[in-house]
Specification:
This protein has helices at residues 7-29, 44-60, 75-86, 106-112, 124-132, 140-151, 171-180, 195-200, 245-248, 262-284, and strands spanning 3-4, 34-40, 63-69, 93-96, 160-164, 184-188, 204-207, 225-228, 232-233, 239-240, 254-255. It is of the alpha/beta class. Strand 9 (232-233) and strand 10 (239-240) form a beta hairpin. Bound molecules: ligand L34.
Length: 285
């Protein structure tokens, strides 16, 4: 029987801490941390996530803007909105919700965001800083995973961490954060040979490949910590993780549920990054 890592409860705890910090930040500086979230098009999952982000901002007392742009928005139009937000003093964090419509080049968009306001930490400048280990802004999902592990009282130092998935959003930055925490890190992906064997070595397994219920009991070592980053939507609209929870839970020592695990923490780390960006900007003025 595993202990369930409750991402909602841990999020609530951190959001309370952020809420207190916002009050003292405002008393000291006379303005609020501000986040702008841009969403282009009608992706239903993105709409849910952006709605959750907006609500989270309101809960902790940030200033926030959600900018909804139609599917047919041109790249130039999007870039000019980012330009305006780069120069807006009320805004300390800018997030462009991914994925973008196919006619818009993602790299050009990420490059346009002022790295100091890049609360996703997706700009190559921030990616580089994460690689060297000197950064203020950590990518939200991997940072959320680290916080879930730490706040569960699990030691990371010296552990075998196996990350399955090599995306720029999760797998690659997750490996850097775990390495910085003194773990031994393996990154696996769809072409990895004997994937189950490699996964069974993991003290901490991070599942991030986007295949519903892919990880069964045969891929998990007895007593492992299992972090499920997958968010797959079934035909019935229900959310399913990458981990077969019913099979794996009895074998794991700790496990995150989906929903209510990593998802809420991604948003909480976004709040944390926005507060950090606002603090850095307050120091400069
Ligand atoms: N730019 N694009 C950018 N930054 C991000 O950090 C994201 N991501 C991913 C997709 N695109 C992005 C998110 O925000 C995934 N993601 C995200 C955020 C929140 C939740 C899930 C993914 C979330 O709130 N999950 C809830 C369930 C929500 C539901 O009912 O659908 C949960 O409990 O897991």
């Amino acid at each position: 029987m595993a202990k369930i890592i409750d991402g909602k409860a841990i999020s609530a705890e951190i959001r309370k801490e952020i809420c207190e910090e916002v009050k003292s930040f405002e008393a000291e500086n006379g303005f609020l941390p501000g986040l702008a979230v841009i969403i282009v098009g009608e992706n239903p999952a993105s709409k849910v996530y952006v709605r959750n982000k907006k609500k989270a901002c309101e809960d902790v007392g940030f200033y926030s803007e959600v900018i909804e742009m139609p599917e047919e928005t041109s790249e130039e139009e999007l870039l000019s909105v980012i330009d305006r937000l780069n120069n807006d003093k009320k805004i300390h964090g800018i997030l462009v919700q991914l994925p973008l419509p196919k006619h818009i080049n993602e790299e050009s968009v990420l490059l346009k965001i002022n790295p100091a306001k890049d609360v996703d930490a997706f700009h190559p400048f921030n990616v580089g800083k994460i690689m060297t280990g000197n950064y203020d802004l950590a990518p939200c999902t991997p940072a959320g995973v680290m916080e879930l592990i730490r706040r569960s009282g699990v030691e990371i130092r010296g552990k075998e961490c196996v990350i399955v998935g090599r995306s720029n959003i999760v797998g690659k930055p997750q490996a850097m954060l775990m390495l910085a925490a003194d773990a031994t890190v393996t990154i696996c992906h769809s072409r990895t040979k004997d994937l189950a064997d490699v996964c069974r070595r993991a003290d901490i397994l991070v599942a991030a490949i986007g295949k519903p219920n892919f990880f069964g009991a045969d891929m998990v070592k007895e007593g492992a910590v299992v972090i499920d980053v997958g968010i797959n939507r079934g035909d019935d609209g229900k959310l399913v993780g990458d981990v077969n929870f019913a099979e794996v839970e009895p074998k794991a020592s700790y496990i995150t549920p989906v929903p209510g695990g990593v998802g809420p923490m991604t948003i909480t780390m976004l709040l944390k990054n926005t507060l950090t960006a606002a603090k850095v900007s307050a120091k400069k003025h």
